[in-house]
Design goal:
Length: 224
């Protein structure tokens, strides 16, 4: 297992820090019922998350990971989903085991931490507050903070600049191919969680620098 000595650490949110699928499942099925559509299974929703709300709604409407609904159907469904998600966001989500210990370990090293997610700010900040994680992060970059989001490297590069750290001295903790692509393009090191949301694929197949099962393992990976 490699050893990292970063000057800053960024964390993804959904699938890395928090299992938010329960909130998303409730909201997807509330949307589907309101629109007169069939409900979707948790296993499917778990495979669909990770690329933002609009892509999740497209997949839910078509029941297909690669699906693209009619634009009028999407225009009708998206505000319905957002309304239900605003009501349910943080109500059913759970912080993954080991996350708090991992964050506290990184903090004990004196390393600045940020959260970089593709979730819109209107949903990101309430979820971080509801789960008690907000105060761990000096900066939060949401999916609509910048014109581009992961897998584009822009949010990571922006965060490195915010902390005045060169990307080569920065570490990203994520769970998906989008995190790996963004980190590689930005020049970050990348550690992925084995349990996250990656459309049913093993994150090891995408060659992050390390894969761990719990953030308690960060104590063996990160030093000064």
């Amino acid at each position: 297992m490699p050893r990292f000595t970063p000057r800053m650490v960024l964390f993804d949110l959904d699938g890395t820090l928090v299992d938010s699928v329960p909130d998303l499942l409730v909201s997807v099925n509330a949307m589907q019922r309101e629109l007169g559509n069939p409900e979707r299974a948790e296993e499917d929703v778990r495979n669909w998350v990770g690329n933002g709300v609009e892509r999740l709604v497209e997949r839910a409407l078509t029941n297909d990971l690669d699906g693209t609904p009619d634009s009028a159907e999407l225009d009708e469904a998206l505000p319905v989903f957002k309304r239900h998600y605003a009501e349910n966001n943080g109500q059913h989500s759970q912080v993954f085991d080991g996350v708090v210990q991992g964050l506290e370990f990184v903090k004990s090293l004196g390393l600045p931490m940020g959260c970089v997610t593709n979730k819109a700010e209107a949903f990101t900040l309430p979820l971080l507050e509801q789960t008690g994680l907000r105060d761990h992060f000096e900066v939060v970059i949401s999916g609509d903070t910048l014109p581009l989001k992961k897998p584009d490297p822009a949010p990571l590069i922006y965060s490195a600049g915010w902390f005045h750290v060169h990307p080569s001295e920065a570490l990203m903790i994520g769970d998906s191919i989008s995190d790996v692509k963004a980190a590689r393009a930005a020049g970050f090191s990348i550690v992925c969680m084995s349990y996250g949301y990656n459309h049913g694929k093993d994150i090891r197949d995408f060659d992050p620098d390390a894969v761990i099962d719990s953030m308690t393992e960060l104590s063996g990976l990160i030093g000064r």
